[in-house]
Write a structure and sequence with these properties.
The complex is a heterodimer of chains A (266) and B (157). Chain A has 266 residues and is of the alpha+beta class. Helix content of chain A is 32%, strand content 14%. Chain A has eleven helices and ten strands. Chain B is mainly α. The chains are: A alpha+beta (266), B mainly alpha (157).
């Protein structure tokens, strides 16, 4: 004869414990998958930046024209050309330029006048890709072969360039060059660690992105004997910012609104 | 056939120009067809019974020879590399150029610098006997070598 409690209870203590025990085990097994998901997996660990790579919020460069002599400039250009397998084409209409010298009135048109100091009047100014904050070349590229990295560098993906040269038309600094032919045989100082370029692609200075990835500063800065400074514009304690606080710096064609990130002390 | 059509055909026959079932220049046409078949099928007859040599990519390079037997492994297992190295290279390219990730962890856990020219070609310095061996067999002409240097070690000058 069952008691009233036994009759009204829908489940007895023994059965209750069995069910909760089994569901706890099942729950834990399912829950373990959850833990596995959180553990570092293969995907995220497979590709990593190299340890010791230089990083910044916004890379920028400063060129102190008072310190830069023609001799050091020549050395910088030579090193850049050697490291990046830049051919010596000869013909100025078809040549490849990453970094070169320009007269003041050509580098800073509109800022020149008849009574400038001789050093400015006669001097040659170091010019290169300005890695603009508002890059017109990136806007016009139909294949996204050129784009702006998070750290501000305007990169080129030669694999994707179709050679339309819109970027060359858009760049107001003439910083981009086109490979009119197979220039590999024209490379004099060869660097076996860096690729060459094929016929039909555009190229330009990349702020030595391949060196930054290895923890090295750009080659021209290294060779410049202190005339060039490379640093993080967003880091107020960087040497770049320190000099920019002390010296008045100008940029090329700022009125065009591209916001160049190569600063000059004239 | 409708009466109308029959009438038209009959009138055409009467003109003497329409002769159903007749091939004009029969001899020339058949000879032409035979010549065409022979020329078009020539490669098949010419190579009949001759199998192309199986590609044998060689691993005999100075760097690989120096490695101890146990360390003679690539970034992925051999079979996977054979079948999918192009997919891996594609991934490597995007990771380096777009993401700035230049380090790859191989299946053994060893870390490699991502670079076709400097890492792959370091061990596989024999372009002709390694890369080209299969690429020629499968009639592949990858565009890699337009820019990347096949033999970086010999290229320096």
């Amino acid at each position: 004869m069952k008691t009233v409690e036994e009759k009204t209870a829908t489940i007895d203590r023994r059965r209750f414990l069995k069910i909760t025990g089994v569901s706890t085990i099942v729950g834990l097994l399912g829950g373990w998958k959850f833990v596995e998901l959180l553990a570092p997996g293969e995907l995220e660990a497979k590709y990593l930046p190299k340890a010791g790579a230089l990083t910044a919020k916004r890379w920028a460069m400063l060129i102190d024209m008072k310190k830069l002599t023609d001799e050091t400039a020549g050395k910088c250009i030579k090193t850049c050309h050697r490291l990046h397998n830049i051919p010596d084409v000869g013909d100025p209409k078809r040549e490849i330029k990453w970094i070169w010298l320009e007269r003041f009135e050509n580098a800073f048109p509109g800022d020149e006048h008849d009574h400038m100091p001789e050093s400015v009047e006669e001097g040659r100014f170091f010019v290169m890709c300005n890695h603009c904050d508002n890059p017109p070349c990136v806007r016009v590229c139909p294949t996204k072969a050129t784009w702006q990295r998070d750290d501000g560098i305007i990169m080129m993906d030669q694999h994707r360039c179709i050679g339309c040269r819109y970027c060359m038309a858009a760049c107001p600094f003439g910083a981009r060059s086109f490979n009119w032919g197979d220039y590999r045989p024209l490379i004099k100082d060869k660097n076996p660690e860096y690729p060459t370029r094929e016929k039909g692609v555009v190229e330009k200075c990349n702020f030595c992105a391949e060196r930054l990835a290895k923890g090295l500063i750009p080659a021209c800065v290294e060779e410049s004997e202190g005339a060039m400074v490379f640093g993080d514009l967003m880091d107020s304690r960087s040497e770049l910012r320190k000099i920019m606080r002390e010296r008045y710096t100008i940029r090329r064609k700022p009125y065009l609104g591209t916001s160049p990130q190569v600063y000059y002390v004239v | 056939m409708s009466e109308e059509k029959k009438e038209i055909i009959n009138s055409l026959k009467e003109t003497g120009f329409y002769k159903p079932g007749k091939i004009y220049d029969r001899g020339k046409v058949i000879a032409g067809i035979v010549v065409f078949i022979i020329v078009a099928a020539f490669p098949f007859f010419y190579n009949a019974g001759k199998a192309a040599k199986m590609p044998e990519p060689k691993l005999d390079t100075p760097v690989i020879r120096q490695l101890p037997e146990a360390e003679r492994v690539c970034v992925l297992p051999k079979q996977e590399m054979r079948e999918n190295h192009m997919v891996l290279l594609d991934e490597w390219r995007d990771q380096v150029v777009r993401e700035g990730n230049r380090e790859y962890t191989g299946y053994t856990g060893k870390k490699y610098t991502i670079s076709l020219q400097n890492t792959c070609m370091e061990c596989h310095s024999n372009y002709e006997e390694f890369c080209n061996e299969c690429h020629q067999y499968t009639v592949q002409t990858p565009a890699c070598w337009g820019c990347h240097i096949q033999k970086p070690k010999e290229w320096a000058g």
